[in-house]
Automatic annotation (TrEMBL):
The keyword Signal applies. Residues 70-298 form the Solute-binding protein family 3/N-terminal domain. The keyword Secreted does not apply. Keywords: Signal. This is Putative ABC transporter arginine-binding protein 2. It comes from the Bacteria. It comes from Methyloligella halotolerans.
Length: 300
């Protein structure tokens, strides 16, 4: 199963220390705000990143709950600030509190269970929960086991380069012969081969290895998941070597459709409930509040 942020193991090995949380929060807030499409209303209608269910000013009619009194969510616990145990042992994070906000909108009890990441969709498929909320990427592989709500944030790709690199705005015509590191077998690698055919593409077994190639000078740039790169840039393993180059790339064909809430295959009623609740959480301003709570430094 693929996660919406591609630096889970690198983050764990790097020791995601509280000292880097401020810088990370700033970068992630900017990226998540951009990715979710939080713009003035006049810009939202023209922004292709805003989920269709969040477009417009008309709140959809509330679906009927029937006799449902509780929603059961699955998540995991090793992905701060998205989901993790705090110092008091309480499960918390952006995704956890988003699930709670959904329950508040629907006026039902909220049960959130922490499970192993690799077992999550299997347990959902087995009927052990109503939904899974754990930064799960909406793509072909994950759709084999689950259906998904509208995305609640996108997963843009980004370039990074060393701070002393002269490449400021990567484009196909400016990267002829330039060495670009990328994780092999990914949509990011396929994207480079399709749109940057004259670049020298170097493939690596992991995102951490690809990023390291930029750090040590083996490659001029690396290309990968933007949010995962944010973790790496602000973590200890980068040693402050590098920074983003150019803007974000969004292409569902190569990078997936974003991150959504997974539900059991064929459960259209649950999709209807969750999509309505996501709309309300966004329309009521609670989505913005959660961003500011977990990524507290504004990028304005």
């Amino acid at each position: 199963m693929k996660r919406g942020i591609g630096m889970r193991d690198a983050q764990r090995r790097a020791g995601f220390a509280s000292a880097c949380m401020t810088a990370l929060s700033l970068s992630l807030l900017a990226l998540l705000t951009w990715a979710a499409g939080i713009y003035p209303a006049s810009a939202q209608s023209q922004n292709p990143l805003v989920p269709d269910v969040w477009q417009g000013d008309v709140v959809p009619q509330a679906p009927k709950l029937g006799d449902r009194e509780k929603l059961r969510f699955l998540t995991d616990s090793d992905y701060p600030p998205f989901h993790y145990f705090d110092e008091e042992g309480v499960l918390t994070g952006f995704n956890v509190d988003l699930a709670r906000a959904i329950c508040e909108v629907l006026e039902v009890e909220c049960e959130i269970e922490e499970v192993d990441w690799d077992d999550m969709l299997d347990r959902l498929e087995a009927g052990e929960a109503d939904a899974a909320i754990a930064s799960i990427r909406i793509d072909k592989e994950n759709r084999r086991k689950a259906d998904f709500t509208q995305r609640y944030y996108a997963t843009p790709a980004r370039f990074i380069g060393r701070k002393d690199s002269e490449i400021s705005d990567p484009k196909p015509e400016t990267l002829k012969g330039v060495k670009i590191a990328v994780t092999e077998g990914t949509g990011h690698a396929a994207y480079l081969k399709h749109y940057f055919p004259e670049a020298e593409i170097l493939t690596f077994s992991s995102a951490e290895a690809a990023n390291g190639a930029v750090k040590d000078g083996t490659a001029e740039l690396a290309f990968g998941d933007g949010i995962g790169l944010t973790f790496w840039l602000n973590g200890v393993t980068s040693d402050g070597c590098c920074e983003f180059r150019g803007g974000p790339y969004v292409d569902a064909t190569f990078f997936g459709e974003g991150v959504g809430i997974a539900v059991p295959k064929g459960d259209r009623k649950m999709l209807e409930l969750l999509n309505y609740a996501l709309y309300r959480v966004h329309a009521d301003g609670r989505y913005d509040e959660l961003l500011l709570r977990y990524f507290p430094m504004s990028f304005f």
